[in-house]
Write a structure and sequence with these properties.
Length: 522
Amino acid sequence: MPLAMGFAEELRSHWAAFAVLFFANGMKNLVNQVEVAFARSLVSCTEPLSEVYTGSQWCGDRLEVISVGYSISQRGQAQESFAMLISILMVAVLGSVFGRKVVLLGGLLGTTISVALFILACAMPGWSRVLFVMGQGLQGLLPIGHLAGLIIFDISVKGGGMATYQVKGLLDTIGGLLWGPVLGNFVQYLELVNYSTVWMAIFLMNLCVLSAAVFLMPESMDKTKAEKDGEVDTTSGAFSKVMREVLSYKDVYYNPLSWRFLLMVCIEPCWTHVLGMIPIQLMAYHGWSQSAVTMLILLQPLFLVFMGIVPSLCLRLSYTFMMPACLVYLYTVLILQQLTIAVSDVLPIIMFVAFTLIGGFMPLKEYVDSRFSTPDEIARFKSVEWVIGYVLGMGIRPVYASVFDASAATYTSRSMPNFLACACMILQCLHVRFIMYPYMRVTLGLMDELENKQREVFLAVTKGDSPLDQEAWQAAALEKHLGKSFEEAQGPFQALDGFREFCKKEPRRWLRLEDVRGHRHT
């Protein structure tokens, strides 16, 4: 009950901020979900329209619509990546000096103007492509994920605490299901050729969100502390704060290990982009309709269904074995998917289902990746990773668009984007195996050591069918190590899994990876 009361009170106290972030994030996700189909509707050609749905309101050549529409979309995405890069840097500076609300209002104004340009593009065929690219670029002025994280943090430290993140978690779950999978796919399923009504509805919603942000949402950042520190009222204070933050990144460039990590970051976006081309290739080479490719979303829940397979196998076979095994399996499945999509529409779907079997691998990979250095340095690595991703996005998308040909008839010409992606995957496999894995193996060994210690202790304190053996408990001095008396600990140890969860709940004195400072990758 106290938890529920804290949740409700937090939602009631900051409802305006939560509402603005929820709908701002939703409108941007909806635009990104629809923009590829919308780009196809803007293609014009000399082929007259027929009864066959092509996706365009001005062109009857279906393959040309798919090819040119994808090219338009990727140019727009490149502009959005550039704008996002600039806005991320601006948020880091202006958001700390002038407040979060000012930056949020600028981003919301940009996305509202963006949708207005989309409306004009529907009515002006001669200018439609230019207006689309400009509108897509303006979408990048709102880095809603980064901004929302700052605002939620501000609200949390003002007293909301964990309840703030619980409200955010609930709204993110609802939004993640509503905006893209439901509304976005529904719009695509309709197979429209004129999106004026859709954009008008989104434009009106953006106006409402912008108005709510202006008149109802308060500034989340506590400027009182900054003013006391002398970092906001004076130009020198703000400038020195910015310079300290910029100079703190010099360790990223002087640390040899960081270059190994960032090289992996540079390679990965070069092939992950091709995964978004699968629906486009299914439409171009296998005759799938726009409404049919939206049904691929039904495969997404398989990631949740199979989420527990990898963690379970790690406990049985060891983390040291499962990490390279999962990497080999992952890249084998993805490469087979890329090499078969030009000739079959069934095999790539089978490969996608096979990919979902290791849905629990990504949390393991992210955890291991986060243990290469100290928390502060890892945070800087992640910031640089965002910047690298946006910089690469400006170039990678047009490259893939230039080698994609919807009307290609041979295996080689159809597979050119996939060959490029496979080459990048193989390069990353070699990088991980020979450059990164020696560092990963240290963390994986510590994780296996922890699991073995837990198993040994569990076997030592259990006897036959009895959950606990009091003499063994006292002999092992577990009351000292775990901070629990024998009477308090009775019950959770019915099985090894229960003991493992019990150890996680008592992290004060139990051996953890975070406590083994001297054995980290550094």
